[in-house]
Write a structure and sequence with these properties.
about 80 residues, 4 helices, single chain, mainly alpha
Amino acid sequence: GAISYLKQAVKHKDPYTPKYIYAEAYATLGVIYQFYFPVHNHLTFAAIYYKDALKYEPNNHTARKYLKKLRKYSK
């Protein structure tokens, strides 16, 4: 259920919501897809969500850390 709630949350772009909230939601989606559904196409989704997180917060620790690990894994 977490995936659907997070996806709904990031759809609603509220100008008053701090950007790090969106970054954390996207990074969390990335973690879910990377570690709970580690098949090839879901790893692609994980990378997309990490990159989305970095658009909102370029120094997001979670997204940077796990995107780096994902890139090493995919080589």
